[in-house]
Design a protein that fits this description.
Blueprint lengths: L2 H46 L3 H29 L1 H18 L6 H15 L2 H10 L7 H9 L1 H19 L8 H8 L2 H13 L12 H18 L7 H5 L2 H29 L5 H29 L3 H18 L5 H17 L1 H11 L4 H14 L1 H16 L7 H16 L13
Length: 432
């Protein structure tokens, strides 16, 4: 092994151990606070007399606010600095998440979900951009896969905990179980936000824990990559945001996002419909997310090993569509769990290859605006998916039929990424 390879291996290992686990925990809490409304949904809707359509709209309106503030938040992070901005996001979303306990009806539900979207906007694309400050291109699918495994793990671990809170805290101090759920699961966000200020450096130059020779190797490698990327054409911010490849990537991500949030918000109620307590529903709800978390890691590793992104992204979407389609035909809890697991395997396996592909297709400082735009537009499916599922459930009485829009979006997204080919031209960096 050459000196350069040894430095690379040591630096990547040191950075991974220092930064990735902490960011995983932060995203774990972010996702818990974003989707725990799905687990609270049955009791919340019953106590406040909310229809499935109202619940689906309230769950999804988060993403409309998220969409509007996503790009500005990511651009501000470059001005303020990653450490301070990520800390601000976490503290503000934790406070708003706790205020979800104050919901009294339809309009306060909409308002607080929208405010939560404003508070959290920029966290995920900010972290994806932040990881590009630390990891060269060939390591990103694996690292993003490790980071994003926090999504299924948050539901895998959070579901049983949420079920216990709902069943055993109900009535304590005069509060309903769903109110305690929002309060208790919001506290870690505020604490971790404060910890960001002392744990996360803004970049390698500020990392006192990184040995000088490893810091020099990393800065040189990243500088070389930026130099190559910045040879692309200069474009205005609007040209970057509206670039065809950015739009295609947003469509691809929407195919995954619709499934992700459609099932995160509605799957607990689908399982509970088989007739069981909140605690048991939490345990069964965790199974598909555990399977998805394993698939996410293994598929990201394979994508890095093969140095291939396009097919790894599209095949994951097709698997997700197949699992959702199976939900239309299966009956009984065991087969339903198998179909849901298949849908989430594809949904989560996509994450690592997709975001590695996105950072490879976006050149230089275009990454900040482009990644935020992809995430913002893609997350609009987080509004459409849950809302349509709730509306179709009210119209037909069937959860399964509500999956038809998610199936269509996954198939279209899988085809869209294939149309771009393996080596599209890079989206250029902003004009000065």
């Amino acid at each position: 092994m050459s000196d350069s390879q040894s430095l690379e291996r040591s630096a990547i290992r040191r950075i991974s151990l220092r930064i990735v686990p902490f960011l995983m925990i932060c995203y774990f809490i972010a996702f818990v606070d974003r989707v725990n409304v799905g687990f609270a949904g049955h009791d919340l809707s019953r106590d406040l007399h909310l229809s499935s359509t109202v619940f689906g709209l309230g769950a999804g309106v988060f993403f409309l606010a998220y969409f509007l503030f996503e790009v500005p938040s990511n651009l501000l992070m470059q001005v303020v600095g990653a450490r301070r901005w990520i800390a601000r996001i976490m503290i503000s979303w934790g406070l708003v998440a706790a205020c979800m306990a104050l919901i009294r009806g339809e309009w306060s539900f909409y308002a607080l979900r929208a405010l939560l979207g404003v508070a959290e906007a920029g966290f995920f694309p900010g972290v994806i951009l932040y990881l590009t400050y630390w990891f060269p291109r060939e390591h990103r699918a694996k690292v993003v896969g490790y980071f994003m495994v926090a999504i299924p793990i948050s539901t895998f671990l959070g579901s049983p905990v949420s079920g216990v809170i709902l069943d055993h805290m109900n009535g304590t101090a005069g509060l309903a179980g769903w109110q305690w759920l929002f309060i208790l699961e919001a506290v870690p966000a505020v604490l971790l936000g404060a910890l960001c200020l002392v744990w996360l450096p803004d970049g390698p130059a500020n990392a006192a824990w990184l040995p000088a020779e490893e810091r020099e190797w990393l800065e040189n490698r990243l500088y070389e990559e930026r130099t190559i990327a910045n040879r692309g054409p200069r474009q205005s911010l609007w040209q970057i945001l509206s670039d065809r490849r950015v739009m295609v990537l947003a469509l691809v991500y929407a195919g995954s996002t619709a499934t992700n949030y459609g099932l995160s918000f509605w799957q607990p109620q689908m399982i509970k419909a088989f007739g069981m307590s909140n605690t048991m529903a939490g345990l069964f709800n965790a199974i598909p997310f555990f399977v998805g978390s394993v698939a996410m890691i293994l598929w990201g590793l394979r994508s890095d090993r093969k140095k291939e992104r396009v097919w790894h992204t599209s095949l994951a979407l097709f698997v997700s569509a197949a699992g959702l389609t199976a939900c239309l035909f299966v009956t009984g809890l065991p087969l339903t769990l198998v179909a849901l697991s298949m849908a989430l395997v594809g949904c989560y396996a996509l994450k690592g290859p997709f975001w590695a592909l996105s950072t490879e297709w976006l050149a230089g400082t275009a990454a900040a605006a482009g990644i935020a735009q992809i995430n913002a537009l893609g997350n609009l499916a987080g509004f459409v998916g849950p809302f349509l599922l709730g509306w179709i459930k009210d119209m037909t009485g069937s959860y399964a039929l509500g999956m038809l829009p998610m199936i269509l979006l996954a198939v279209v997204g899988g085809i869209a990424v294939l149309t771009q080919g393996r080596k599209p031209a890079l989206v250029g960096h902003p004009a000065e």
